[in-house]
Amino acid sequence: MTNEPVPAQAPPADGAGFVEWVRPHLPAMARLAARLAVGADRDDIVQEALTRAWIKRDQFDGTRGTASAWLLAITADQARKAVRRLRPVAELVEHDEAVARPDVEGQVDVNQALGTLSSRQRLAVDCFYFADLSIADTAAVMDCSEGTVKSTLSDARARLRSLLEVSE
Q1: How many CA atoms within 13 Å lie on the side-chain side of 69?
Q2: Which of 37, 131, 134, 157 could be 32's S-S partner, Cβ–Cβ 3.0 to 4.6 Å?
Q3: Whole-prediction pTM value?
Q4: What is the band of 104 on the pLDDT scale with cuts at 50, 70, 90?
Q5: Which structural domain range is residue 145 located in?
Q6: What angle do CA 77, 153, 151 make, to 5 degrees?
């Protein structure tokens, strides 16, 4: 007996089988799309990713990673494309002063801090913390080694700590 990992099952060639194959991964795809492409339509991004996955289903290689990692890598790519397509919206007419809401102020600070990370650090944080991917799956999405993911996450945490003045 060998300890080699069993390759992930390839996507079925029929439409109904493909739907069942991707169904468990849809929530993670939607979360990642929402995190990576703020302002774009999350559902459109997931739909584009599913279309690309269907077209490229014969390119899936279960020996190189999980179905989840493969689908999330396609989703991340589609999210990046959606962000590039976003155009600045015309300036909004000034309105009354916004009312401060203490319940969201902390979240805004975190979102602003996340926005200062490099795109690679944001992708690692989004995959690992917001899409709940493992280090291995995050590495597959980012197309890098697991060590690089760990290092990138460490750097991102250090940056966020300094920005948010969080002590360990």
Answers
A1: 23
A2: 131
A3: 0.67
A4: very low
A5: 104-168
A6: 105
How many other CB atoms sit within 10 Å of the CB of residue 15?
A: 9
The full 3-state SS of the chain, as one line of letters, equals CCCCCCCCCCCCCCHHHHHHHHHHHHHHHHHHHHHHCCCCCHHHHHHHHHHHHHHCHHHCCCCCCCHHHHHHHHHHHHHHHHHHHCCCCCCCCCCCCCCCCHHHHHHHHHHHHHHCCCHHHHHHHHHHHHCCCCHHHHHHHHCCCHHHHHHHHHHHHHHHHHHHCCCC
Residue finishing a domain among 30, 54, 87: 87
Above 70 in pLDDT, residue 101?
A: no
Q: Are 69 and 38 in contact (CB under 8 A)?
A: no
Would you state the pLDDT for residue 74?
94
Is residue 20 assigned to a domain? yes
Type of residue numbered 12: P
Q: How far apart are CA 43 and CA 30, in angstroms?
A: 7
Question: Would you tell me how many other CB atoms lie within 10 Å of the CB of residue 163?
Answer: 15
